[in-house]
Each structure stands twice: as structure tokens, then as C-alpha cells.
Specification:
This protein is an alpha+beta fold. It has seven helices and 27 strands.
């Protein structure tokens, strides 16, 4: 081989092997290059793995190997198809143990274990179990380690994303705004808890148990996401909240969120676009009868010795509400104590699971953990509207209010919209990565003054000074605040999209009538040409609201300049009831 040929061969080899062909010292600089790795690094060229027959049947069931950067690994063959010539296991019914700390123990402290289970014997895994153990044996339960099980209910063979540059779970890694590498898209599900297995009593249960993603239109994207939590409860007041005794699951779902993409505008590049979330908390329901048996889940018994906690390898079932039964359990079995609602008014939520809740706190304090509406670290700093029914008197029902034509939570004592008109404080999947909070923002507060379950008292701080300068009282104005209740307990996805269309068309029709009223009084509406055009359901909803707002201001100004107090009174009633036709 001449020198040129040798150089070409070496270049191809380095390109193909990538990080696998460099030394451990060089590895650090490669990891910092930010180039994603999608497979476990193969052994370096020339390395010969060691194979072992664990059960004496003459076939290998274990491969002792290492990655290209010298991390020891062990493959366990759970379906008896391993061959003596194999250099790695398969990803249908095998288990991979990664000795990240290189202490010679494969399934112990500091290690990562990934197990694939093919329950229907079609040659593809149906669930993937990931056990991420903390470096030091955890005496405090939370959050030390990860237990995450992905259920491939849409058969796309996509599971959890592991960053093979660092051997870490990176479930949040994505391309673009929301094309997550972990399988949150389509008809899929996962269960998860941020602990090590040895700190869990019943491994059939989980904390997020489960996250359910629904793909009703079968486009490979998720239009509905349901999160169900089994929250540990304090059993020993003398012990720390984070002690083992106080962190055990009881088989009761006490926290639920239901998020929906109302206008079905998700697409490639806009993979997640949930518009609102309904939450139910407290009491909940027992789900211990929701047992799912998985064939082939029990791992090779002779391999139990490799695992610090082999209990999860000895299971053949999981207990969780599934796609089919979740809504029935939530609405018919659940005994809820409070209802929570949030609407993504600035349409910037691209989280994989939900529009994140605002909390019933100070309307004007801003910043994660600062005691305001966005106290929740994952909530939008500005742009969402939250409403809270703290005694669940409305039972999670919704309604489209005559007040603004928008969707509201029936039974809410109050609500608050922190305005981000131009989506400047972009939420994305997690605002912690953006670290940008508004210094000034408009706020609209809603209150149910008459206690009938419908919001009837609205306060506006549109100049952002922390003081409400305008108040509208529907009762004093003679406006009926009541509306037809919307029970979503039996909703199909089509029912949600029909509701959104009815809502956006209604708001847009109000706005067009307001334009006609403005023309009647000789006002120039060309100032608002941008708002008068709407090309989608979302634009009708958003622009229709603001077009009414601006025209109302102009018409009120006209009434003030002309001294027409009767017109001013009628304008307030028309604006707060949506009955612009009364002015034509």
C-alpha cells in the first residue's frame, strides 16, 4: 500500500469510527464538540470481546466488551439468539449494562442499564427499560437516579435518547423547537421516577405512571398528552420527607393533566403545540387493578447476579392506566379536590407534554420561584392565562364566556392572564434555558364575584405599572355571565377541534362586526390592516381579540371627544358581551 492509499484508508477509518477511534484523553475534546451520538461506540478495531455461556446450554448469553473510549460494557442475551461470533447484543430482547465508573461492577452504583423487551415476538422491542444509577449509593430518595420505561405503542421502534458521548439519559435533546429524540411523538407512552430502583418498594408502579401521548389523526405527531402522577405521601412525620418511608408509591393517581392541540396545527418543525391544559388534583383514584403483563419481560435468571437490584429483572408486569382506560378512570373513578386550567395565549408552548401551569399567586411578581403566577420553574414567564377552581366545584367543566368568547374554567374563583402580545418571552420546552423574564407586562385579572361559577369581574393593567386602571363588572352592566357548560370527559379529539373552530370563528365574527361599527362612525380602520387579515384558526382567535380591543379604544375615544355618554355606555356593554351588532 502506498503512502497516499494509506492516508485515505486512515481518513476513512477515523471518519467511520468517529469518537470510537480516539484515546480517552482526546475524548474530552470530542465530547465538547456538541456533535450528537446516536449509538453506543463500538469496540476499537482489534479488540476481541469475551463471550460466556451463563446457563450451560452451549450457547453464549453474555458478551463482555468495551466501547471505543474504554468504558466496560456487558450484553445479556435474554432470548437465546446470541452467537459466538457476535460483538454486541441486539435491541429486541437483550440487556445492556454500562460500567460508567469502571469499577468492574456492571449493574451497580454509577452505572447505566438498558433493557429491551419484545413482548409479541415480532423481532422488535415493545418496551425499553432504562435504569440510571447515581454515582454514590443514595440514602435520600429524590432525585437520585432515574427509572424510565418507554412503551412503543405506535411501533416506530423509537425509545429513549441516550447521549453516547457522555452515557447519560438526555430525554430533552431535540432538533429544532420540539423534534425530541426520545419518543414523545405519536401514540406512545412512558413511566418515570427520578430515583434508583433500590429506593422503590413496588417496582411495578411509578411516579409519572404514565405519560400518555395520543395521535388520533395518525400523522405521527401527538395531539393530546395526559400526565398521571402517583405522588408519595408522608407516612412518618418524624422522618425526612425524602426518606424511604415517605417516598413510596401507593397505587393512587392524585394528579392529572390533560393537554390538547386544539387547532391541530402541529407539523414537522412545529412538532408540539398544545394550546391548553386542564389539571385535576387531590383524592384521585386507585389504579391497582390496571395490570399489564408483558411476555419475555423476565430476564435471564442466571444473569441476576450482575445486578445490584435484580428485582426489576424478575418482574413480568407493570401497573398503570393505559390509553384506552385513562379518561374513564380520570372522570368516572377520580375524586378530585381542585381543578386547574392554563391557556397558551401567546402560542409559544413547545414542551413535549403540556402547557405548564400557572399558580394562583401574585399577578405582578415575575420569575421562577418568586411567588408570582410563573412561580413554577417550567411555566411561561408571560403569555399564558391561568384559572383556579380550588374546591373543584365546577368538576373540571369548561365554557366559552360571553365576556371574551374564550375558553374558561367553570367554577374558577379567579384567573389571570399575563399578556405577552408578541411572544417576546418565548417559552419553548423550558424557559430555564432562555433565562429571560419581562420587566414590564400587561395583566388581566378575572374574578367570579357573584359565586355562580362564571367569571364576571375583569380588571385590566394594560400599562404594566402593577395597578388595575380599568374595571368591568358584568353584573353592574346588566350582562349575563352564564354560558353553556362543556363536559370534556367523553370528548373525542374531533370534539376538541370543533370547539376550537367554534370559538375562533366566534371571536373573528365579533371582530368583523366591530369593524363595521367603526366604519359606521367614520373611523379609519386601516391602522389595523395587519390585524384584519387572518389565515388560520389560531390567527382568527388571536387577531380577533386584539382587533376588538383596538377598535373599542378608538370608539371610546370618539365617544369622549363627541361627549356621547350614551355611546360610551353602549360600547362597554357591546365589548364585554361581544354583542357588537347592538351598535349597528
Amino acid at each position: 500500500m502506498n503512502r497516499l492509499s494509506a492516508c485515505i484508508v486512515m481518513s476513512i477509518g477515523l471518519f467511520f469510527w468517529g469518537i470510537n477511534s480516539v484515546s480517552h484523553a482526546q475524548m474530552k475534546s470530542v465530547k465538547e464538540s456538541c456533535i450528537a451520538s446516536f449509538r453506543m461506540p463500538l469496540p476499537p478495531p482489534g479488540f476481541k470481546p469475551k463471550l460466556e455461556d451463563l446457563n450451560g446450554d452451549g450457547k453464549p448469553e453474555a458478551i463482555y466488551s468495551m466501547t471505543g473510549d474504554s468504558v466496560p460494557i456487558l450484553w445479556i442475551d435474554d432470548d437465546r439468539d446470541m452467537k459466538w461470533t457476535d460483538i454486541e447484543g441486539d435491541m429486541d430482547n437483550d440487556c445492556l449494562l454500562i460500567d460508567r465508573n469502571k469499577d468492574g461492577i456492571y449493574g451497580g452504583d454509577g452505572d447505566l442499564v438498558i433493557d429491551w423487551v419484545d413482548s409479541d415476538n415480532d423481532g422488535k422491542a415493545d418496551l425499553q427499560i432504562v435504569m440510571d444509577y447515581p454515582v454514590v449509593h443514595a440514602t435520600e430518595v429524590w432525585p437520585n437516579g432515574h427509572v424510565m420505561i418507554l412503551l412503543d405503542t405506535d411501533k416506530d421502534n423509537i425509545f429513549n435518547y441516550i447521549d453516547w458521548n457522555t452515557y447519560q439519559i438526555k430525554s430533552w435533546n431535540k432538533s429544532g423547537r420540539a423534534a425530541f429524540y426520545t419518543d414523545y411523538s405519536g401514540q406512545s407512552a412512558f413511566t418515570k421516577m427520578h430515583v434508583a430502583t433500590y429506593n422503590m418498594g413496588d417496582l411495578r408502579l411509578n411516579w409519572e405512571n404514565p405519560f400518555l401521548f395520543y395521535d388520533p389523526d395518525k400523522d405521527g405527531l401527538s395531539e393530546i398528552a395526559v400526565r398521571l402522577l402517583d405522588s408519595p405521601s408522608t407516612k412518618d412525620e418524624k422522618a425526612s420527607w425524602n426518606d424511604y418511608v415517605n417516598m413510596q408509591l401507593e397505587g393512587v393517581i392524585d394528579w392529572v393533566s390533560i393537554s390538547v392541540d386544539l387547532d391541530n396545527d402541529n407539523a414537522s418543525g412545529n412538532d408540539f403545540d398544545f394550546d391548553f391544559t386542564l389539571g385535576l388534583r387531590g383524592g384521585g383514584f386507585d389504579y391497582m387493578d390496571q395490570v399489564h403483563v408483558f411476555k419475555n419481560m423476565r430476564g435471564l435468571p442466571e444473569a441476576d447476579k450482575f445486578f445490584m437490584d435484580p428485582r426489576w429483572r424478575q418482574m413480568d408486569e407493570l401497573i398503570y392506566p393505559d390509553h384506552k382506560n385513562a379518561f374513564d378512570l380520570i372522570f368516572n373513578r377520580g375524586k378530585w379536590e381542585s381543578a386547574h386550567f392554563v391557556y397558551d395565549e401567546d402560542d409559544d408552548c413547545h414542551r413535549w407534554e403540556r402547557v405548564e401551569f400557572y399558580e394562583a399567586r401574585d399577578p405582578f411578581k415575575v420569575g421562577a420561584g418568586n411567588g408570582g403566577l410563573d412561580h413554577n420553574t417550567q411555566a411561561d414567564a408571560a403569555g399564558d392565562r391561568g384559572e383556579w377552581d380550588m374546591d373543584c366545584s365546577g368538576k373540571g367543566n369548561l365554557y366559552i364566556s360571553p365576556l371574551d368568547g374564550r375558553l374558561h374554567l367553570y367554577g374558577a374563583e379567579w384567573g389571570c392572564w399575563r399578556v405577552d402580545q408578541n411572544t417576546e418571552y418565548y417559552q419553548g420546552w423550558d424557559r430555564l434555558w432562555i433565562n429571560k423574564n419581562p420587566k414590564k407586562f400587561a395583566t388581566v385579572k378575572y374574578t367570579d364575584k357573584n359565586g355562580n361559577g362564571f367569571l364576571d369581574y375583569v380588571e385590566y393593567d394594560m400599562d404594566g405599572d402593577g395597578k388595575f386602571e380599568t374595571v368591568f363588572d358584568l353584573k353592574a352592566l346588566g350582562i349575563d355571565d352564564r354560558a353553556k357548560l362543556i363536559d370534556v370527559s367523553s370528548f373525542t379529539y374531533r370534539d376538541y377541534t370543533k370547539m376550537m373552530k367554534r370559538m375562533s370563528d366566534g371571536i373573528w365574527e365579533r371582530a368583523q362586526t366591530a369593524v363595521r361599527v367603526a366604519h359606521k362612525y367614520g373611523l379609519n380602520t386601516s391602522w389595523y390592516a395587519w390585524w384584519i387579515e387572518a389565515l388560520s384558526m389560531r390567527e382568527k382567535y388571536h387577531r380577533g381579540y386584539w382587533l376588538q380591543y383596538y377598535l373599542f379604544q378608538d370608539l371610546m375615544n370618539y365617544g369622549l371627544r363627541t361627549g356621547d355618554k350614551d355611546l360610551q355606555q353602549k360600547l362597554v356593554v357591546a365589548y364585554c358581551s361581544g354583542n357588537w351588532k347592538s351598535l349597528l
